[in-house]
């Protein structure tokens, strides 16, 4: 192991000869499919990989990618971003959040614009940076606007644990953590889904385990492959799906064995359960209300729950995306980004109208950047 | 002198004079500056290039350089990119009260060392000290002029068939700053460096230079898009020809960035006519073995990156603030 270099961690997964060989094999076997394979990649990271590495171009005509709702920034409804902006404007508050959440527009503004207005808003690289900010600013309320799928949720739980252990009392949480399986079910239940195969997310699956997708096989007879993020991972996963189709034996397979297991990271799951529980419903940008699809803080931590503490100032009305936006259809596989009338014109990454254009991991954003 | 810069150093009185005489004149010593007139008198026959830039960086000191090195390299490199040898530089300091004197002296010394490498002089300057909180420790503005040694280098010159080269591996400065900012340990060094020697070598060898640009903020992606736009051409880049170090690739993997979007402070992109491409590459390799031909100018209108496995994609202008990915 001591001779392992950083380069070894990715080069083989981007090896041109392997990618070409996989493409050849996929073409050969896909010829035998008796119906087109419409694969949904749930995770925005996969959408990004597919577009960035030109994997879509390597596919035969009867394999189509459908881009799922797996971008934590994209799926955040405008009213939740309005919450963040409102919280940032409260006296004595430092608002912290992860990554490019800061750019995403709410109904009237974004955190980036609010920061430019002079409010203290800090994008983080690591969730644990919140601890230092809180220690350095004991007279302030440091609110962590927590976002992300199951990948980032344990980090929020770990932050809470550390803060409590260290006796830090000035960190508050606004929880927007969402779950992966419920939107997959919602899409399949919508009655219009054209999806007949799934690539399941890499990092999310490391936490929740491949077993979480068994319902897609049992209830919808749909094959699933848990796939890594590198181009070779995605190509190999497509080949595995084609083979499942040809065998007519749908099951959950794990291509990403180097990191994901059947049961996932049980410790991370337990830590999350210690602090958070499932919400009755959560509104997804582009998909609407999905039951039991997100988390909230448990009642016993209510004194640290910014959503409760500031309930009287947080706006609650639902705000729809622009009426010309077809993100809902794109997320269900009923349309492509390029089918949208406002794609690349009124809706661009710098002024997104719909959810899929918002973050780098969104389908429209990936099409705009790499292949429009 | 005191340990820290106080507002008195910007007051125009005794302390200001001390700062100028005992620090700036000591390190930036030359006849034009120390004549201490209201304006510098310089010789400027023929065509000159004139540029200005302001520098603010956090942290002030980073692997491979500091804000002072950046302030000299940045302005001198802008001149070099127009085929002009950097000669006369102006320098304005905006200093936050409370800055350690030692820090300021380190920055000034570095500036002096860089100037001597390229034979340029700081011939005029200005100092402001502002109350704590008004600026982030120190901001530096430098302007520069230099005589143009080779004319008609322009972003508008690209024609189909021209060849694009990069002078070294890309993304070093941007990744080092990101690593410092987000407390990620790295052995990577910023590429912060003066580029006149390389440019001068290309000029002296008679290379038919069409366009030159240092790939600072916005990185390689921004330069290529600006050129494609300005010359109304397409550019095709071979992904496996673009040199990127392991450290930069690793940091990009951690943060979710693209090396091509990251800032450089000592790497330039050059477009040359097809016949001169190999000669230019050999010449640039003498300065940095990673110099490479990376692509060609086409008759399209977009910048396209071709993968080693036969697919292709666009390279877009990077947008907004670079922020780390979420998961």
UniProtKB/TrEMBL annotation, chain A:
The keyword Protein transport does not apply. One of its GO terms (molecular function) is iron ion binding. Gene3D superfamilies: 6.10.20.100, HypD, alpha/beta domain 1. Keywords: Iron, Metal-binding. Transmembrane segments: none annotated. InterPro entries: Hyd_form_HypD, HypD_1, HypD_2_sf. The keyword Coiled coil does not apply. GO terms for biological process: protein maturation. Belongs to the HypD family. This is Hydrogenase expression/formation protein HypD. It comes from Lebetimonas natsushimae.
TrEMBL record, chain B:
Belongs to the HypE family. It comes from the Bacteria. GO terms for biological process: protein maturation. Residues 37-147 form the PurM-like N-terminal domain. PANTHER family: CARBAMOYL DEHYDRATASE HYPE, HYDROGENASE ISOENZYMES FORMATION PROTEIN HYPE. This is Hydrogenase expression/formation protein HypE. It comes from Lebetimonas natsushimae. Residues 159-305 form the PurM-like C-terminal domain.
């Amino acid at each position: 192991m001591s001779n392992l270099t950083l380069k070894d961690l990715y080069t083989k997964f981007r090896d041109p000869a392997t990618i070409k060989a996989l493409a050849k094999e996929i073409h050969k076997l896909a010829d035998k499919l008796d119906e087109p394979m419409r694969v949904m990649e749930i995770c925005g990271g996969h959408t990004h990989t597919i577009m960035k590495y030109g994997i879509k171009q390597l596919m035969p005509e009867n394999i189509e990618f459908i881009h799922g709702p797996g971008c934590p920034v994209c799926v955040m409804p405008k009213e939740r971003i309005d919450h963040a902006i409102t919280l940032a404007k409260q006296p004595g508050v430092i608002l912290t959040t992860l990554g490019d959440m800061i750019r995403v527009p709410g109904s009237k503004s974004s955190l980036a614009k609010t920061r430019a207005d002079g409010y203290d808003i800090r994008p983080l690289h690591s969730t644990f940076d919140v601890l230092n900010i809180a220690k350095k600013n004991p007279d302030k309320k440091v609110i962590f606007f927590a976002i992300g799928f199951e990948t980032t949720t344990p980090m929020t739980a770990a932050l809470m644990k550390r803060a409590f252990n260290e006796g830090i009392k000035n960190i508050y949480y606004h929880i927007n953590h969402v779950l992966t399986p419920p939107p997959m079910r919602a899409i399949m239940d919508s009655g219009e889904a054209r999806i007949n195969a799934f690539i399941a997310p890499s990092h999310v699956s490391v936490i929740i385990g491949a077993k979480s997708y068994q319902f897609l096989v049992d209830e919808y007879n749909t094959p699933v492959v848990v796939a890594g993020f590198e181009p070779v991972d995605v190509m190999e996963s497509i080949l595995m799906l084609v083979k499942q189709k040809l065998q007519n034996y749908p099951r959950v397979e794990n291509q990403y064995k180097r990191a994901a297991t059947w049961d996932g990271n049980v410790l991370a799951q337990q830590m999350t359960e210690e602090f958070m529980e499932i919400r009755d419903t959560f509104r997804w940008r582009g998909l609407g209300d999905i039951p039991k699809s997100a988390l909230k803080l448990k009642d016993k931590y209510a004194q640290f729950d910014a959503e409760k503490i500031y309930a009287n100032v947080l706006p609650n009305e639902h705000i729809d995306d622009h009426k010309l936006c077809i993100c809902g259809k794109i997320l269900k596989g009923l349309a492509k980004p390029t089918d949208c009338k406002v794609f690349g014109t009124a809706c661009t990454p710098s002024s997104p109208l719909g959810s899929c254009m918002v973050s780098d991991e969104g389908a429209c954003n990936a099409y705009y950047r790499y292949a429009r | 002198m005191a340990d820290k810069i106080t507002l008195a150093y910007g007051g125009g009185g005794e302390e200001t004079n001390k700062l100028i005489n005992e620090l700036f004149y000591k390190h930036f010593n030359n006849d034009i500056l120390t004549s201490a007139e209201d304006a510098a008198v310089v010789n400027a026959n023929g065509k000159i290039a004139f540029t200005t830039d302001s520098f603010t960086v956090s942290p002030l000191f980073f692997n491979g350089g500091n804000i002072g090195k950046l302030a000299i390299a940045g302005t001198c490199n802008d001149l070099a990119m127009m085929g002009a040898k950097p000669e006369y530089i102006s320098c304005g300091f905006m200093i936050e009260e409370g800055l350690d004197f030692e820090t300021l002296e380190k920055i000034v010394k570095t500036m002096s060392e860089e100037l001597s490498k390229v034979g340029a002089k700081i011939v005029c300057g200005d100092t402001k000290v502002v109350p704590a909180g008004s600026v982030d420790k120190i901001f530096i503005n430098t302007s520069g002029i230099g005589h143009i040694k080779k004319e008609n280098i322009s972003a508008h010159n690209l024609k189909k068939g021209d060849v694009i080269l990069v002078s070294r591996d890309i993304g070093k400065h941007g990744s080092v700053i990101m690593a410092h900012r987000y407390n990620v340990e790295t052995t990577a060094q910023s590429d912060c460096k003066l580029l006149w020697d390389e440019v001068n070598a290309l000029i002296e060898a008679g290379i038919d230079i069409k366009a030159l640009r240092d790939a600072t903020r916005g990185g390689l992606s921004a330069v290529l898009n600006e050129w494609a736009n300005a010359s109304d051409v397409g550019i095709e880049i071979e992904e496996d020809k673009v040199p990127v170090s392991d450290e930069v690739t690793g940091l990009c993997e951690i943060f979710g960035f693209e090396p091509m979007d990251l800032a450089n402070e000592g790497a330039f992109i050059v477009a040359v006519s097809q016949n001169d491409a190999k000669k230019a590459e050999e010449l640039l390799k003498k300065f940095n073995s990673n110099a490479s031909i990376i692509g060609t100018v086409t008759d399209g209108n977009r910048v396209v990156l071709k993968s080693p496995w036969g697919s292709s994609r666009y390279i877009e202008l990077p947008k907004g603030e670079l922020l780390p990915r979420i998961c």
